[in-house]
Amino acid sequence: MDDLDPFTARRKQATAARPLLGLTVLVVEDSRFTCDAIRLLCLRSGARIRRADCLAAARRHLKTYRPSVIIVDLGLPDGSGLDLISQLHRAVPRIGVIIGMSGDDLSENAVLAAGANEFLPKPITSLSTFQNLILSHLPYDRQPPGLRLVCNRHVHPDPLAYQDDMAQMAELLCDRSESQMIDYVAQFVRGVAQSAEDTVLAQAAADLASARAKGAPYISAAARVAALIQQRLQKKRAI
């Protein structure tokens, strides 16, 4: 499955303890917090991980190697992940496992219709869920031999990665003239805040997205999101 990967000289055999050993997972995700969760899941499973933070970067990766698994977030800064999923589904040879990812459970039907093997809802912290999702779509020769102990552990992403995400959004909110960028910030912040169990910020971002969808005035909602983000960045500076 990695036959175009120049770094893969020899296929490693999966084990019961590391059932994804030998696999390369390309994660197309703009959130560092979410990526850190997937990094930890891959590390504990034996998989190699690479990251692309936008569609353009993902396509650059795919020109040089073919991953075993690709996980694509739907809300990306330069377009919808559904477009990439559809493209990869039609490609020959097809990547073995294509997974669409979103914090919106209502996106599942769209992900499957685009051609993905599975839908992965955020937040992503369960090791057993992550492993089983991928293993269920691997061919027999990539399955770990013998019995596998199901691990119910959860990973905990680095809080500093959450701070990095907030800093990035703070910069984008400085320019409120781009309404499309406001939409991107609203969905991004809502998804990351939900993953971090930051309910106050998640609700503020949801209110901003709702105002934009209704065509209602949104400046005050955007200002509240910006203020809450600054509060979280102040915590980082205090540390």
Automatic annotation (TrEMBL):
Pfam family, one: Response_reg
Domain Response regulatory: 24-137
GO biological process: phosphorelay signal transduction system
Cross-referenced SMART domains: REC
Record's keyword annotation contains Repressor: no
InterPro entries, A to Z: Bact_response_regulator, CheY-like_superfamily, Sig_transdc_resp-reg_receiver
Gene3D superfamilies associated with the record: 3.40.50.2300
PROSITE patterns hit by this protein: RESPONSE_REGULATORY (PS50110)
Residues with PTM 4-aspartylphosphate: D73
Keywords attached to this entry: Phosphoprotein
Name this protein carries in UniProt: Response regulator
Species: Pontibaca salina
